[in-house]
Amino acid sequence: MIKDNDWYQEQERLEQVRNKLQARMDELEPEVDGLGAQASDIRKRFWEEVTINTATDEDFEESFYTIKQQSAVLAERERSHKRLVQQWNNMKRLLASPYFGRIDFHEKGLNLSEQVYIGVTSFLDEDGLNFLIYDWRTPIASLYYDYSPGPASYVTPVGKIEGTMELKRQFQIQNGQIRNMFDATETIGDELLQQVLGKGADSQMKSIVATIQKEQNAIIRDDHHRMLIVQGSAGSGKTSAALQRVAYLLYKHRQTIRADQIVLFSPNPLFNSYISTVLPELGEENMQQTTFQEYLDYWLGSALSLEDVFDQIEYVLTARGSAGYEARIQGIEYKASEVFMQSLQNYGLWLGQEGMQFNSIRFRDRELITAEQMKTTFYGYDRSLSVVNRIALLQEWLLKELASLERAEREAPWVEEELSYLDNDQYAEAFRSLHKEKELLDLTEHYAVVREKITKQRRGDEGDFDYAVKEEQLLRRKVVKEHFAPLRRSVMKFKFVDVKRIYAQLFADESVYRERTNGAVTPPLWLEMCKQTKEKLANNELFHEDATPYLYVKEMIEGVRTNTDIRHVFVDEGQDYSPLQYEYLKKLFSRARMTVLGDFGQAIFLQATSLDADDSPLLRLFGENETRLIRLVRSYRSTREIVEFTRLMLTGGEGILPFQRGGHKPILVQTEGEDQRYSQIWADIEGLMAEGFDSIAVITKSASESREAYASLRVHGGGKLRLITKDTLGFHKGVVVIPVYLAKGVEFDAVLIHDASPETYAQENERKLLYTACTRAMHRLHLFTTGEWSPFVQALPANLYELRSY
Ligand SMILES: Nc1ncnc2c1ncn2[C@@H]1O[C@H](COP(=O)(O)OP(=O)(O)OP(=O)(O)O)[C@@H](O)[C@H]1O
Question: What domain of life (predicted)?
């Protein structure tokens, strides 16, 4: 129990700090304005201050230096201005709620204890030495997250500091007033966390700096491993930890890492918008956000039409029973497997010996360089060279060949014809550029130009003995060069490699496939699978499951693209990526560290990778010594009742621990027929809204089920309903209908499962879909059926839910 006197003292200190903040802001304001004005003034008058004089080399040099100097002054002013604005903004953010924690730490060997107040950014007293507020990312602040009162230590760049924590206090401060204050005894944050978690869902994620848990702090501050893997149950704070980790890295390495050197791969564009405010809330710029799909589209999308991951999962979920379904499913699984990845690598070796496919270079309906010539040249190079190196040599050879073919082409009859088609303007242009070219080369020509100017008479080229001949030669050169330019460009872009055929020929009958891949095993429906793949390719289309392997093969031949600027890669929902995709990311971001966060319990795509199984390819990606695995088992999102209900849907889910926040048991609603279902869903939605819940989701298995539910619910009164599709870019509060795979990573106050019957969730891969859908709920969970319950629901003990029938 906190004493009145403590309240009084804390409020008093709070006021002092706020006054100092305000005073500093007032002090800074004119400086901020002044520097801003100066910078914009310099920008406006930039060209007034410099005179460009090119009369002599010296003049030119001088002008050049003036410009350089002037822009250096401008850049410095702009930098100072930016720094000040940031300081000012930081203080403004602190003003309403300067800190959220306090620890009193008695360092061993010293005879006094320090009061450490922790907030979203540091604030120093005027002397510049005394921290009135410590940034939550400072080494000393880690005490707050890692310890309860008692012996404690923290690590600084100069070593470990030991001592005793004498007090740990948490605050809720709003508009400059302490609303709540707790002294923690054991685990930190329970009371504060209770309050935070009890609130409603938001359309945007919030930062969790005030209540980071110890195991999350380990993720945030890990700075030693090349690969950090986090396997955490639904709602255990993986995404939150990832975002605070970004903020931590930006703070700790502020001299060396910029926000745009960090990239986060997220499950879908909706999720991007959901998390986009967390870092700005913490005073940091957002990292880059993308999806793997965007990468694929960027590198392959111009040549082929790619199926996206959502269309793929929609097919998996809705096309069962249709022709070719089983083969396609086997294909999806196989193409995401490590066996296939290995077979691609072996295929690369085979290609080094035989089987390369090239596109001949054609020009005006002629084959200038045939595919056969390329093949012979390619396999004529030293075979100990890698495929990539030999392709580079071939590219060089092709460019040389093109240059000599281009020379020969100048005499071709079509060139002559083309010359006669040149209109006057083109001729005049050619004439001008011809003279320009000559001017540079030819002193006499230079003289002629000057004379032409002085006498104001166009010079007579007639007097020039071979000028007409030269002119024609130059024009021919120009015309042919223009026609050859696209050929050169396409060679530079490796268009001479027929990647499509190279990829397609892998899908031959089993014995051929084995021969080309050093004996890789094939799935039972291999031939059907090959047929499907090749049919797609013939239409210049790619199944989603082929996109990464295709890109992999392409880069195996043309060389790997790398992005060395990126220093940290974050992969959220990491269970949904295949080993090949990880291999690809590792190569692409060759200098980056990786943080992968995911939950195998939510692996709803077929190309899933376990994050923490002993044989997980992820654990091997960077090797044991460079890898750390952290498991999170406590679920913070949902009430205890919801976690107890959902965890038993998973095999082995008993290990998931609920945070002690009580609520209602999930409700199972069984209705007579469809009409009854929709009126009941709508009645429940209205009831929930009346209780004050304003973020409610009706979750379906697929997009087609979403469309159906949306249409029916609108008939039953749901005018304010929104249908979320893969093209929806942002979230708003309200009632939405959404397929589960788009609800990944996000949360709602209340979730209504549209159809929890065995028709929808019965297969093993549907177990995780139902689990993922139900775990989106923070406070309330209702499930509906018009008949039986899904076996995953039936298997749950009856005391975990409430049953209603209509
Ligand atoms: N330490 C914490 N303090 C306050 N809230 C927390 C904390 N950890 C997690 N939460 C809250 O729990 C919810 C779930 O967190 P988050 O989305 O990060 O979990 P997740 O593991 O990524 O979930 P999922 O895998 O289900 O998408 C969020 O509302 C988040 O704010």
Answer: Bacteria
Q: Is 601 in the pocket of ligand 1 (CB under 6 A)?
A: no
- What is the CA(269)–ligand 1 centre distance, in A? 19
Angle at 203 between CA 199 and CA 205, to 5 degrees: 70
Q: Strands 101-107, 113-119: parallel, antiparallel or unpaired by DSSP?
A: antiparallel
User: Any alpha helices (H) in 200-324, and if so which ranges?
Assistant: 214-221, 238-252, 269-275, 278-281, 292-300, 309-318
pLDDT in tens, 117-135: 999 999 998 888 899 999 9
Ligand 1 centroid, distance to 257 Cα (angstroms): 26
Which pLDDT tens digit goes with each residue over 34-86?
665 666 666 666 666 666 666 666 766 776 777 777 777 767 777 777 788 88
Burial category of 592 from C-beta neighbours within 10 Å (exposed 0-12, middle 13-18, buried 19 and up): buried
* Residue of 208, 575, 639, 699 to mutate, ligand 1, most atoms within 8 A of C-beta: 208
pLDDT tens for each residue of 529-561: 999 999 999 999 999 999 999 999 999 999 988
CB within 8 Å of 189: residues ≥ 6 apart: 170, 210, 211, 212, 213
pTM, two decimal places: 0.86
Q: Is the CB of 163 under 6 A from ligand 1?
A: no
Give the integer Cα–Cα distance in Å for 475 and 471: 6
Q: What is the pLDDT of residues 486-506, one digit of tens each?
A: 999 999 999 999 999 999 999
Q: Report DSSP state, residue 357.
A: -
For ligand 1, is residue 235 a contact (CB within 6 Å)? yes
